[in-house]
């Protein structure tokens, strides 16, 4: 979910090839939810192996990671840690939405509806098994990952100030956390079905630069955080009737969020704590390394344990091996 400040953000269409020879942190939970929602069977059910284990995430992570590496992009996956108590409201709301979607699915089945995709796609859970299997696959592929102490997008954004070039995530919150560069539509792109409508649209990868957002809108980072909080984030409800453009105008006129709230006679609970969480979220410094993929382990894990097509997997494993040829260790400065 995150904050919706899209109306004041300038994005640039790009491609994986154009972003080659760079390292990107990946907001893993954000990507997993996309994969679980979009990588599905024709009837809307998630992909599953013969034992009933969901495999949509493994399908997406494997093929998309290979695709990134083929385009000389170095991915570093970042997993969520313990959520901030500030997020309790959002977590509860998401749970209620899933429970509502379950009821709607049952009603649709009783009505005899044949196309249930729209109902199934709204019922997604990132279970401990999904997380463990994703990490196991990344280990086999030689791709590093980081366990964040709290919010994955905060950790991924922090890393853009240290040892990566940008963060791959759909959430604009990354800009509030100070990500220098945000890449969107890098996990799911191309033709995508519009939710609840029988139409499709073409989605292209795009990037956003934090400095450009601040410069064009003539604001600073503190004011950008204030705009996001006025609109609403995972940590607070926004002010009703205030979108990104109105929040921008108010912030520029009044100077900061406290002055805006005073002017409009509104309060935001835990404002100081929320603002400080965006300024200084819990993060860790992490030295990551890339290693040669264990192609036999990958094939066994995906094909023998989870029923993936051996022929198709082998084609991609050959491509993956070629990306590592001539190196004994996959170092950040030797990705050629």
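^ structure tokens above, recovered residues below v
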């Amino acid at each position: 979910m995150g904050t919706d400040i899209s109306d004041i953000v300038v994005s640039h269409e790009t491609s994986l090839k154009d972003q080659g020879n760079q390292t990107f942190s990946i907001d893993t939970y954000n990507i997993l939810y996309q994969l679980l929602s979009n990588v599905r069977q024709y009837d809307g059910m998630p992909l599953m192996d013969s034992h009933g284990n969901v495999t949509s995430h493994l399908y997406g992570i494997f093929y998309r990671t290979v695709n990134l590496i083929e385009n000389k992009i170095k991915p570093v996956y970042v997993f969520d840690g313990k959520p901030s108590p500030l997020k309790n409201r959002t977590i509860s709301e998401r749970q209620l939405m899933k429970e509502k979607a379950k009821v709607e699915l049952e009603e649709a089945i009783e009505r005899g509806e044949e196309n249930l995709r729209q109902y199934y796609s709204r019922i997604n859970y990132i279970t401990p098994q999904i997380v463990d299997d994703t990490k196991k696959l990344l280990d086999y592929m030689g791709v590093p990952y980081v366990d964040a102490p709290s919010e994955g997008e905060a950790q991924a954004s922090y890393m853009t100030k240290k040892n990566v070039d940008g963060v791959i995530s759909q959430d604009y919150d990354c800009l509030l956390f100070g990500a220098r560069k945000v890449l969107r539509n890098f996990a799911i792109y191309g033709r995508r079905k519009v939710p609840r409508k029988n139409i499709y649209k073409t989605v292209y990868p795009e990037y956003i630069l934090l400095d450009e957002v601040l410069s064009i809108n003539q604001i600073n980072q503190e004011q950008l955080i204030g705009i996001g909080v006025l609109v609403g984030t995972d940590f607070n409800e926004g002010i009703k009737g205030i979108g990104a453009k109105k929040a921008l105008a108010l912030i520029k006129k009044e100077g900061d969020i406290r002055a805006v709230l005073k002017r409009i006679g509104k309060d935001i609970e835990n404002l100081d704590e929320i603002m400080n969480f965006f300024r200084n979220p819990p993060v860790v410094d992490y030295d990551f390394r890339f290693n040669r993929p264990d192609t036999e382990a990958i094939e066994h894990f995906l094909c023998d344990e989870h029923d993936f097509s051996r022929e198709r997997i082998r084609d991609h494993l050959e491509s993956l091996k070629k990306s590592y040829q001539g190196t004994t260790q996959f170092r950040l400065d030797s990705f050629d």
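The CA atoms of residues 126 and 155 lie 19 Å apart.
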